[in-house]
């Protein structure tokens, strides 16, 4: 019996992941409430996004610390993350707070990396890199700042952090492509 089968599917880490997924529509309703620019609703949307983002850190930490890693969690966790950040980016672009090209660059990278991981999964797993983790953190911080009611200082900080997140988004995307091809090539040599 493998370790993944011994771990109950309904555990605290998976419950947090499912809660994060359930918060996505609540977040979107808050973001678009009262036309999308009401200060109270934007603060509520920010609060929901912050709580949902924090559950990502907690569920991963709990899963590793207490041996609660499941196949469901391995699949559901990144889906929940992408649903949250993706919906926030699309929502901000729909409100003309964030240019669509930024949302598209990030979305293409995320979908591309996910497809790459599935493409090479039979050869091995491409673990998240430090750059990838930094990219995610910067994206979450920038999105959070863009969700807040804006003034010149918040806007400047948000744009600087988003610019850094975009650079890491592209660089780590290229890194994943290289790592995927190296993993596939190593597996091909091992078979030969």
TrEMBL record:
Specify the protein name. CDP-diacylglycerol--glycerol-3-phosphate 3-phosphatidyltransferase
What EC class is this? transferase
Keywords recorded for this protein, A-Z = Lipid biosynthesis, Lipid metabolism, Membrane, Phospholipid biosynthesis, Phospholipid metabolism, Transferase, Transmembrane, Transmembrane helix
Q: What is its main location?
A: membrane
Q: Which GO terms describe its molecular function?
A: CDP-diacylglycerol-glycerol-3-phosphate 3-phosphatidyltransferase activity
Which Pfam family name is an example for this entry? CDP-OH_P_transf
- In which organism is this protein found? Lentzea rhizosphaerae
Q: How does it sit in the membrane?
A: Multi-pass membrane protein
Record localization: Membrane
Kindly give the InterPro entries that the UniProt entry links to this protein: CDP-alcohol_PTase-I, CDP-OH_P_trans, CDP-OH_PTrfase_TM_dom, CDP_ALCOHOL_P_TRANSF_CS, Phosphatidylglycerol_P_synth
Q: Which residues cross the membrane?
A: 12-33, 98-120, 132-148, 154-178
| UniProt record similarity statement | Belongs to the CDP-alcohol phosphatidyltransferase class-I family.
Q: What is its EC number?
A: 2.7.8.5
Please spell out the taxonomic lineage of the organism that makes this protein. Answer: Bacteria, Bacillati, Actinomycetota, Actinomycetes, Pseudonocardiales
Matching PROSITE patterns: CDP_ALCOHOL_P_TRANSF
């Amino acid at each position: 019996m493998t370790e993944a089968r011994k771990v109950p599917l309904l555990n605290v880490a998976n419950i947090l992941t499912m809660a994060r997924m359930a918060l996505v529509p609540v977040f979107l309703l808050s973001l678009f409430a009262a036309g999308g620019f009401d200060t109270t609703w934007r603060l509520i949307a920010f609060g929901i996004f912050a709580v949902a983002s924090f559950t990502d850190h907690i569920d991963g930490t709990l899963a590793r610390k207490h041996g609660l890693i499941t196949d469901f969690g391995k699949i559901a966790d990144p889906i929940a993350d992408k649903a949250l950040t993706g919906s926030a980016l699309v929502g901000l672009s729909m409100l003309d707070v964030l240019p669509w090209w930024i949302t598209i660059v990030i979305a293409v990278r995320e979908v591309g990396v996910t497809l790459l991981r599935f493409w090479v999964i039979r050869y091995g797993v491409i673990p998240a890199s430090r750059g990838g983790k930094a990219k995610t953190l910067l994206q979450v911080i920038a999105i959070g700042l863009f969700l807040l009611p804006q003034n010149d200082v918040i806007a400047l900080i948000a744009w600087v952090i988003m610019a850094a997140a975009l650079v890491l988004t592209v660089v780590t995307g290229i890194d994943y492509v290289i790592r995927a091809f190296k993993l596939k090539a190593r597996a091909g040599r091992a078979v030969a």
